[in-house]
Write a structure and sequence with these properties.
Elements: H1 2-27, H2 39-47, E1 49-54, H3 58-61, H4 82-91, E2 96-102, H5 131-142, E3 145-150, H6 163-179, E4 183-188, E5 194-196, E6 203-205, H7 215-225, E7 230-233, E8 258-259, H8 267-272, E9 279-280, E10 283-288, H9 306-316, E11 321-328, H10 337-353, E12 363-366, E13 390-391, E14 399-418, E15 426-435, E16 438-445, E17 452-471, E18 476-483, E19 493-496, E20 502-505, E21 512-516, E22 527-528, E23 539-547, E24 552-553, E25 557-561, E26 569-570, E27 590-592, E28 600-618, E29 628-636, E30 643-649, E31 660-679, E32 686-688, E33 690-695
Parallel strand pairs: 1-2, 1-11, 2-3, 3-4, 4-7, 10-11
Antiparallel strand pairs: 5-6, 8-9, 12-14, 13-18, 14-17, 14-18, 15-16, 15-17, 19-20, 21-22, 21-23, 23-24, 23-25, 26-28, 27-32, 28-31, 28-33, 29-30, 29-31
The structure holds beta-L-fucopyranose.
Beta-L-fucopyranose binds near residues 189, 191, 286, 293 and 652.
Length: about 700
């Protein structure tokens, strides 16, 4: 009897031990693979979307970069209301605000005790104002985090370029990191060194970006004063976050959150990360809601439209990045209503697009599940929690997960997330749909990372399959979402070629274009566009894309063309390709470099005398070299005697290669000469996508 009982007892113990070890196998999570995010980076990544605010003396001078000698007395934002900024940001779904507390001109938005060039000498609040304090308070009230942009380049400081400046810079950083509560991110811009006021020296000061700032010690200071803060640095030693190589609002489709800690970082690495990088340095996509960073009244009609912002959303947050969207503040201290409308419109569009997750309560199955367990089953990818995940056995790097809708379901978006605390793993994947019993491929992509969103034309299917076709180690998928986003029509593009032919191109095939030859609001009752049409002389066109099936229409596109360029000729050049700069197409470009040393001249014959009052220059949109940083503009009636009518710099043209428009006192001329005095990188190369004039 006793023996019998012991047998049962032993069996029980054995069963117990067995289930513990089984449970252990089930519970054993994959080991991290490669670099992983720090807690700070993780917290930052989860913020996803936050604001930039550009505000400084530039706001009052209509400049992009101040020289450093602008009068502090200009700073007087009579209606400044940081609570308005914070309210808009919160309502727009943003989680924080990064303020340009000091831009390149050196003017400080807080009363720094280390310089006189600050709000303390401005008329605003009789010198008792502190924008950083007001914003810190507003952020706290609206549940937002605060970040600071402190420009390393300071065109006002007499010490810039000397070792003393580094002490000054760190003193300012210390003020900012100790007096205003928690700071979530510090932003160190890469524009460094060049001409400036420098306390009256009025000279050019170059610095060695690799050594001058001694970043490592500055980083130590930041970590000591604000241990939870992330550091963004474009110009110096690798920090916590990276720039994506463009201010256009997109990161590469392939986007690894990795880079190497040491060595040169080429453009490609910024844009795509580095598959085998040794450090976790994720991408932050910074872009402005208007073409420029600071407020310029002439851009009030150029605020990005909701479809454009939505595109930015998909190309940043939807590609494993965060989105840092800029609001330029007006001279009165407020965000312009057009910018507010656009940001809130984006928030609404995002909400609508991702309103219903079609995977809710559906069944998921997988070709492989780690340890046969419940812990890492495919259902963990659709359980609405980012902390659980589907994982396969360690040696399985190709696997599929199927979600069965149970009935035909229409969708056009696929969202997928990796559990990045264990590293970024997936290198390639496809998405398939089961339509009438056959699997068809909807999309093929590379990296996933924290979040990837794929778009495709709406499809009706009974099941969806995610195929991981390449992964560094076993895939670890924390979330999948499937949505049917309402279509948003993008505004069409309008171009005019050299012979005057106008082409209007819709962004999608289903829509019809209507236009007016004026600045009004086209509707579906306006003239229907049926193909390219000829035009002469000055012309203004407004167009919309309209979808007959839904009655929806796009935002309006507007283009203004000046005199016809039909009889224009490029003087003294045999290269046929040079005509690309007059073809009206912003994506074609031509460069002149030869062995010529700067300056490089471009001479155009307008075919007849015109009353000129300005010119426009668009740098090559597809090339990081060739943009003209410093220019002179001459006019002539006979191609012999030239008169200099304008000169200056195109600031920030390298990072933000927009149309550059300059005006001058009206003058009659037949010939124009655009002289490239300096190229952005100091090369002997001048690149042009388009050159145009403005006439009286
Ligand atoms: C650039 C700066 O030079 C611009 O003025 C702006 O602040 C942008 C965010 O970064 O590199």
């Amino acid at each position: 009897m006793i023996i019998h009982m012991m047998k049962y007892w032993l069996c029980g113990v054995a069963f117990f031990l067995c289930s513990i070890s089984n449970n252990y196998a089930q519970k054993k999570a994959p080991d991290p693979y490669g670099p992983v995010p720090t807690e700070n980076q993780m917290r930052w990544q989860e913020m996803k979307y936050y604001a930039f605010v550009h505000f400084s003396l530039n706001t009052y001078t209509d400049q992009s970069w101040g020289f450093g000698n602008e009068d502090v007395k200009l700073f007087n934002p009579l209606k400044l209301d940081c609570r308005q900024w914070a309210r808009i940001c919160r309502d727009a779904g943003m989680k924080g605000i990064i303020l340009t507390v000091k831009h390149h001109c050196g003017f400080c938005l807080w009363p720094s005790k280390y310089t006189e060039y600050s709000v303390k000498n401005a008329p605003w609040k009789n010198g008792h104002g502190d924008v950083v304090r007001e914003l810190a308070d507003a952020c706290r009230e609206y549940g937002l985090k605060l970040g600071i942009y402190l420009s390393p380049w300071d065109r006002n400081s007499p010490d810039y370029g000397k070792p003393e400046y580094i002490t000054y810079f760190r003193n300012q950083l210390t003020e900012l990191l100790t007096n205003y509560g928690p700071i979530f991110e510090v932003w160190f811009d890469g524009a460094n060194g060049g001409s400036g006021y420098y306390g009256g020296a009025n000279e050019t000061r170059t610095i060695d970006r690799t050594t001058y700032y001694d970043w490592q010690n500055t980083y130590k200071l930041i970590r000591r004063l604000q241990p939870d803060c992330v550091i963004w640095n474009d110009g110096g030693d690798r920090a916590d976050l990276r720039w994506v190589g463009t201010e256009g609002g997109l990161v590469g489709e392939t986007n690894w959150s990795l880079l190497n800690a040491k060595g040169e970082v080429e453009w490609n690495m910024l844009h795509h990360g580095l598959e085998n990088g040794d450090s976790w340095v994720p991408a932050e996509v910074n872009t402005s809601i208007r073409p420029e960073w600071f407020y310029h009244p002439h851009e009030d009609g150029q605020v990005k439209t909701v479809p454009q912002l939505m595109e930015t959303y998909y190309n940043s947050i939807g590609r494993n990045g965060t989105l840092l969207l800029n609001f330029p503040i007006m001279p009165n201290g407020l965000i312009h209503p057009n910018d507010e409308k656009a940001a809130l419109g984006l928030a609404r569009a995002v909400k609508e697009a991702f309103a219903v997750n079609l995977v809710a309560n559906k069944k998921a199955s997988a070709t492989n599940v780690r340890g046969n367990a419940n812990e890492f089953g495919p259902d963990k990818s659709i359980d609405n929690s980012n902390d659980t995940y589907w994982a396969t056995d360690d040696d399985v790097t190709n696997a599929s997960l199927t979600i069965d809708f149970g009935k035909p379901t229409t969708f056009n978006r696929f969202l997928v997330q990796e559990y990045i605390r264990l590293g970024q793993r997936v290198k390639a994947f496809t998405v398939e749909a089961l339509v009438d019993g056959h699997w068809m491929q909807l999309a093929k992509a590379t990296t996933i990372g924290y979040k990837r969103i794929l778009r495709f034309p709406a499809i009706k299917a009974t099941a969806v399959r995610l195929n991981i076709t390449g992964s560094k180690s076993c895939p670890v998928i924390s979330n999948i979402g499937i949505y049917n986003a309402p279509q948003i029509l993008a505004a069409p593009s309008i171009t005019r070629n050299q012979s005057g032919e106008v082409t209007i191109t819709p962004a999608d095939m289903e829509s019809v274009i209507y236009y007016t030859l004026a600045s009004g609001q086209p509707t579906s009752k306006s003239k229907k566009y049926t193909g390219p049409f000829p035009s002469e002389g000055k012309l203004e066109i407004s167009a919309i894309a309209y979808e007959p099936a839904t009655g929806k229409s796009s935002p309006v596109s507007r283009e203004k063309f000046d005199i016809s360029r039909k009889n224009w000729r490029i003087v003294g050049l045999a290269d046929e390709k040079a005509n690309l700069i007059l073809d009206g197409n912003p994506s074609t470009a031509w460069h002149q470099s030869k062995n010529e040393k700067m300056p490089i001249d471009l001479v155009l014959d307008l075919g007849g005398e015109q009353k000129l009052c300005g010119f426009k220059y668009l740098p090559d949109q597809g090339n990081t070299t060739g943009a003209i940083a410093k220019y002179q503009f001459f006019v002539s009636t006979d191609n012999t005697e030239w008169k200099l009518v304008d000169e200056g710099e195109f600031p920030n043209i390298k990072n933000n290669p927009l149309w550059q428009t300059r005006s001058f006192t009206p003058i009659n001329a037949r010939y124009i000469k655009l002289r490239a005095v300096r190229e952005v990188n100091g090369n002997n190369d001048a690149g042009y996508a388009e050159v145009d004039v403005i006439t009286k």
